[in-house]
Amino acid sequence: MHIYANPKRFLSLASWMTPLLFWGGLVMVVGSIAWGLLVVPPDRLMGETVRILFIHVPAAWLGMGGWTGIAISSAALLIWKHPLAGLSARAIAVPGMVFTGICLATGSIWGRPTWGTWWEWDGRLTSMLVLLFLYGGYIALAQATAREGGSPKIPAILGIVGAIIVPIINRSVVWWNSLHQPPSLTAGKSAIDPEYLWPLLISTLGFSLLFGAIVLMRMRALIAEQQVEARLRRRALDEDVAPDNVAPDNVTGVTPSGMETA
Fold first, then answer.
1. Is the separation of the CB atoms in 146 and 153 below 8 Å?
2. Residue 30: which of 209, 184, 216, 195 has the closest Cα?
3. Per-residue pLDDT tens for 153-206?
4. Quick one: 115 exposed, middle or buried, by C-beta within 10 A (0-12, 13-18, 19+)?
5. Whole-prediction pTM value?
6. CB contact at 8 A, 186 and 87
């Protein structure tokens, strides 16, 4: 892990991984969604609305997976003081929040014809909403500490403490009775028909690759931003020091216009 603590070494890796993940993920996402829209038959109970599955499920997976990534990066920052761990967590937060929002939006659209309501305060929906708020709080805190020069350990603590929401979301449909269906995928078992399962798995993998590409793009942008800020600080310090090394005009016998005094 510490091999890539050097930003230059990390950037050399990210430069070829980013397009690979982006284009690979994009092809898989487009192909799986086309498969789900054009090939997969309507569900016996949910009809055509089942097709939203191929966006809703990957979005829910990446909403939870994103915060898991923040927690891991935060732990690396606090335990090993990895120099890029804080940047990694910040890079994950925004796309994680976006996918959590997509999960809630598509869930509401799916729930309206299925449950007869846009929103239900059940365990799964409520805990996903809490996750969305956690993302917002983490982003605001991370930006504030970066802007004010605060310690990155502060948002890292939130990243680790907030990880408690991930198992709550995962087990919410088991712990509390609600309108939300129980888990369809468990260890070694699937309640999903293979006609839906394969395009769903490809869609989830494709969105995951896109997520990884976006995180790498954001990390590269954050590193570049830090490098620019460091150069500007050095330039400002050089300009502050330079006048002390220049003799006043009246000592050299040269007027401000550049002409010698009599």
1. no
2. 209
3. 999 999 999 999 999 998 887 777 676 776 666 556 666 778 888 999 999 999
4. middle
5. 0.84
6. no
